[in-house]
UniProtKB/TrEMBL annotation, chains A, B, C, D:
GO terms for cellular component: cytosol. Residues 354-434 form the Adenylosuccinate lyase C-terminal domain. This is Adenylosuccinate lyase. Belongs to the lyase 1 family. Adenylosuccinate lyase subfamily. It comes from Pacificispira spongiicola. Pathway: Purine metabolism; AMP biosynthesis via de novo pathway; AMP from IMP: step 2/2; Purine metabolism; IMP biosynthesis via de novo pathway; 5-amino-1-(5-phospho-D-ribosyl)imidazole-4-carboxamide from 5-amino-1-(5-phospho-D-ribosyl)imidazole-4-carboxylate: step 2/2. Keywords: Lyase, Purine biosynthesis. SUPFAM superfamilies: L-aspartase-like (SSF48557). The lineage of its organism: Bacteria, Pseudomonadati, Pseudomonadota, Alphaproteobacteria, Rhodospirillales. It comes from the Bacteria.
Amino acid sequence: MIPRYSRKEMADIWEPANRFHIWFLIEAHACDALADLGVIPKEAAKAVWAGGDKPYTDERIAKIDEIERVTKHDVIAFLTELAEHIGPDSRFVHQGMTSSDVLDTCLAVQMTQAADILLADLDRVLAALKKRAIETKEAICIGRSHGIHAEPTTFGVKLAGHYAAFKRNRDRLLAARADIATCAISGAVGTFANIDPRVEEHVAAKLGLTPEPMSTQVIPRDRHAAFFATLAVIAGSIENLAIEIRHLQRTELREAEEYFSPGQKGSSAMPHKRNPVLTENMTGLARMIRAYALPALENVALWHERDISHSSVERMIGPDATVTLDFALNRLAGVVENLVVYPENMLANLNSLGGLHNSQRVLLQLTQAGMSREDAYKAVQRNAMESWKTGKSFQNLLKADEEVARHLQDDAIDALFDLGYHVKHVDTILDRVFAEDA
Amino acid sequence: MIPRYSRKEMADIWEPANRFHIWFLIEAHACDALADLGVIPKEAAKAVWAGGDKPYTDERIAKIDEIERVTKHDVIAFLTELAEHIGPDSRFVHQGMTSSDVLDTCLAVQMTQAADILLADLDRVLAALKKRAIETKEAICIGRSHGIHAEPTTFGVKLAGHYAAFKRNRDRLLAARADIATCAISGAVGTFANIDPRVEEHVAAKLGLTPEPMSTQVIPRDRHAAFFATLAVIAGSIENLAIEIRHLQRTELREAEEYFSPGQKGSSAMPHKRNPVLTENMTGLARMIRAYALPALENVALWHERDISHSSVERMIGPDATVTLDFALNRLAGVVENLVVYPENMLANLNSLGGLHNSQRVLLQLTQAGMSREDAYKAVQRNAMESWKTGKSFQNLLKADEEVARHLQDDAIDALFDLGYHVKHVDTILDRVFAEDA
Amino acid sequence: MIPRYSRKEMADIWEPANRFHIWFLIEAHACDALADLGVIPKEAAKAVWAGGDKPYTDERIAKIDEIERVTKHDVIAFLTELAEHIGPDSRFVHQGMTSSDVLDTCLAVQMTQAADILLADLDRVLAALKKRAIETKEAICIGRSHGIHAEPTTFGVKLAGHYAAFKRNRDRLLAARADIATCAISGAVGTFANIDPRVEEHVAAKLGLTPEPMSTQVIPRDRHAAFFATLAVIAGSIENLAIEIRHLQRTELREAEEYFSPGQKGSSAMPHKRNPVLTENMTGLARMIRAYALPALENVALWHERDISHSSVERMIGPDATVTLDFALNRLAGVVENLVVYPENMLANLNSLGGLHNSQRVLLQLTQAGMSREDAYKAVQRNAMESWKTGKSFQNLLKADEEVARHLQDDAIDALFDLGYHVKHVDTILDRVFAEDA
Amino acid sequence: MIPRYSRKEMADIWEPANRFHIWFLIEAHACDALADLGVIPKEAAKAVWAGGDKPYTDERIAKIDEIERVTKHDVIAFLTELAEHIGPDSRFVHQGMTSSDVLDTCLAVQMTQAADILLADLDRVLAALKKRAIETKEAICIGRSHGIHAEPTTFGVKLAGHYAAFKRNRDRLLAARADIATCAISGAVGTFANIDPRVEEHVAAKLGLTPEPMSTQVIPRDRHAAFFATLAVIAGSIENLAIEIRHLQRTELREAEEYFSPGQKGSSAMPHKRNPVLTENMTGLARMIRAYALPALENVALWHERDISHSSVERMIGPDATVTLDFALNRLAGVVENLVVYPENMLANLNSLGGLHNSQRVLLQLTQAGMSREDAYKAVQRNAMESWKTGKSFQNLLKADEEVARHLQDDAIDALFDLGYHVKHVDTILDRVFAEDA
């Protein structure tokens, strides 16, 4: 995570102000539950809220840091500073809890906050893709397999495919969010020896989490692994669309282009030098987000009830993965929203091979008109080769071929070059993709 | 995937006999749909089933291989061989379809078959963990954080935690299975130009798949990425439990051991040399399964409507990841089912520090008995240190400490060393973990 | 590793026949050393060679497998079968050694054998690149940054760049080979308690290895990690060249193409449908080779003197990574050797923008002719824009521009469109790249 | 990279002040070369040094940022600010160069600076390991395979093994440093069309780099991949030693411990609760450093002469990987330097099985005394089992065994329990490991 690739809203989740505020909420809600259970006085719980429920200013954070330099323990430093605001009742705070109860539950809250932003990001990407897909659903272009012209499709269909992928990613992220949205307040090794399980239930409910069925001082890390693995899958889809756009913007294709603002200079005097730098950038960011999933997967196998090897990893990938993905998704949404599409170039590219993409269709029709498959194949290939080598119109060559003419008249041949044939199911496809949105 | 780490049932999914049989089913069901639509004669569809629905013997497979060496195209070789069994009606087979329609839909079927075996594997692991957890729920042992004694827990609680993780993994795998269970019969670039979408719907229904809302010759690879990423998460949980057992089997702990058959020799004359080789082996296998997720994540970003870079990857990780995970899960289930548990060693280890794990509890009680937290801390630490250095009983030292004695009488101290305190919520925890199973 | 992507020579390294033969060599050389040291009779050492030095036939291997099924120990099974060939003196074999001495040293031999094949593969790739680079060093083509036309280069220069990368990879592989070429015969925890260090020295010398300075039953795994990481770097270079070719073969570029044999059919009736399937395939294989490095990196951190978690990993990635890389390098060499190059298409693509790639050069010349940089920039961009939008010749537009004409005459402008300017240092570059080969 | 895990010296390399200063050096040295070649006036080159060679203060950096917000181009912003300090001669700066010439060469300088710090870090680790290895070379402890007691070794031998690994890592890093220490000043696509190759040679020499034989606007990324892969291998060795220490600090072993400062509190009142948090932390950091190698490996395959997908990756992993590794190595050195070693616990653990680790040796001696291997094995196992189950002394049991007594007298048995047997080659091993240091 570096400022260049960060958005403030997401970065703020990982700032001390937010973290300490969440810590406070955990402690204060726990006090309420402890008070209800008669473990601490009800007045104490009230005092905690009254004294402590205020923003963590830079001044307060500096104070906590100062204390931590002495105690070398972050939660103790936090509690010490908090005590100054609460007064004597502060001794009832944190009763029966361990630091991990606070830290792990806080991480769960931060990750759900991050997930919520990412879900909104995905919604922005989805909205952009849908809008542009519908706009361009009739923009016919050549479909390419292996980078080679295959058969026609439309630009809208391309975008609809990416929409469907991001829709799946949204579902996956929702599942991953649920996976990490648990609360653990269970004590030193998760046995609730020193704290009633009902405290955990109360705090969980207040923070929008579910109680962790079985924690061992820490929330089990397969949850986090599944979360970061999901971000990696989403990164793959970003890369997929980014590479599509990078390809289409190549000088020789120029079927679509990242938007250039009027004042923006290309990298030189050459006006064609509009580089797809945003999608190239996302390609790199996708690599990073994928990489962050690995240490998360290795974090699962902690020793016994816990070791702390996961902590340094999460201090890094927690912010890094979510901030980078948030940035990439927003950049992607912007690229899609403003993408400049060139339908005329699409058609020019499609036609550059003289209608050769209809060769299979001609072959099929010849067979149905009575030729054997072998003869039909030879006739089609003979004319296709000629067209390919000389640049002559495939359509005209077919008409001039005696053997073909015996089976298909000119108008029948012309009918085989109708682009509508290829795109007749565009609405079917878009209906399927957008079906659930209705 | 190597024979040493393979189980036949899973390996067979990736054998030619199964693959060709699935190809046949796809083609035959497609013929039914085409016949219903009037595209091909109903008699032809019947002829396909009548002639072709029989096992792919080694002889048939050898024949297909022989043809492929000439045509250099696997699907054509398959169709040529099939034609011999069907007769003239074979020309109606594969009408309007592309090879990828067959290949990708077949892969989806193979992956769902693999997922079903893995789900059964997880069920076996879950059953073993639950059984052993309930059996050992009262086997008190020391919980360890950072490898250091913390507070007591029970062996059953440990196992319940792993049960919960594998339960989550089961849910994740179910989602991943749904993700890859789609059928694509949509033609060269997914536009249905040459085939009616209803064919895809019919084949999907017959094969237990859902129609892929938007394919582009290929089924989008974010689905496969999510699948293999899920296997990687499961591998993490295997490693987690494997490492727990490896730790417990260490010479100095010996709280649990992989089962050794009566005739089995250790690696030497030393009877203690019972190495946790199965769980060590699983640790390595987990690394492999994690690694296989990476190329699957990189496969998402195919060029345009498709390139074929994913194919070599999937030919390798398809079998490798599922066979290895299947093997590891079964090995794990066996280890858990037969795990030898030593409750007496657990107690001995727990007591080896003379009850020091109760120091926090003593501290808490002294505070409630009126000591300031600072004084209580000093008193506890003074005696804990003495016990730690000299090996004397912490419990006895406390009784002999004058300051402590002023606040707590001997029987009050003894009460603080009751193990029941730590395990009073064991049933609560197990109930939470096993709740949904009822 | 699957047969489809395997070459026999490399795959054979990992077959039992080679493994058992290496085991025999280790044991027999060790006997020689033990005999020299007077630990065992000289006659015994001779008997070992006399009886045991013969190929491991399928029959012998089956016998060993049969014994292993009973003893469940591979080295013991091997020694038992060997004893039948040696007679009573066989009891002197393996004295003071541990199984790992044999297994780890054998792996070292196998990896050096694999490395030698890979070095030969790299030589084939290098030879092909050099030959084609020199052949095509004057084939001018447009250089592309961001997929967008930049300035001219030549195809030979492109290939020379890849040559340089593979030359570096050769050096890296040599270093990695040296890293894993060590021999360990040091006993149960590497202390030589039961075997004289001179045995290790002798065996190492005979097998072309160096004695491992410090083994702990096993050879330290950072060596293997460095080896597999190096294979991953080489895979990156394969992918880099593969992607270059895939790009150049795109329908719109067609500057180079994988060779198609005369009889080879494209995937359809369309003759342009020559897909870069070999380089796409290599792209996928590169992903796999990269992935195999990961578990090798995780293998470094074994527990204490050793655990066996690395073993399952190496049984898989040992063959998988080397066989796959060997296959990919040979496929790559073949693609380069037979690559069809289209210099006329290169020129056509280069000129498709009407010489716009000289805009910077024109700008520079106008400045030197006295215009301010700002004015020169405006003049160039004005004409470049016009050319870009209308397709008119940039060169002619400049001549017709009054402001430009005031500073540059027609022949001066023409001189700026000389392609020679861009390629004047081609020989300098090739000399640098091929310098060390002389 | 987060402040918590950063050391200033390494972090500063990646700060703007250092980057801009390197940019200046590249430009100024290039001016010298251009002046020597007569391309620009000699006075101009002097003016560049005279005006520009001063530190990049926060003020200057803020100015550059301000300009970049307008121009959206970092190198142009840099040049504009620089011009203010140089005056009119500034127009001669950057002649014929591209931004990448500056950026990529700067990255090479930064990476060599980082490598030099890492080499010094490794030297610190090596010095600490060697010192402690020699100190503890006679501290006998049990060697453990699979976590199970095997045969005796010494703590110094353990450390010597890690020393050897870090020595290899030093060699690997030196090679990796050489790999990335190249300079590219070759223009838009690396053809030197607008700049003489001698400029590159001059700048390279001045900056301690070698000229890149073949750049394509960018320095080829296999170099960077090899560099980051090497850091990943080093991380593996860190993890390996970290895990050894974590194991030895376990409550049940306590053979070594991270140093606790006198004032430092454990996490509770329990004095044994000294957690190996530093080595656990390094375990996590190692995971991160490994992960950073992946995107570096994916960066190799840029499109054609370059795309910019590598840039975002390197902006992140450049600092992240080097800063994290620097931090981890220094933390590791500190841990080793101050490691508390408990030889008495080592002996106690070694003896806890009553000398069973000598069973193989007894077996061997019985054979040499005339027993058949089968009978000897049975005799040894009988007594070993008894010792293992009852805790009785293995040594005494052997003496009391009639069959054993027939072959070995009491003093012969006692001789087999001499620890010196196992450690007689300790100096041999240390000599081998430290040989090259002489």
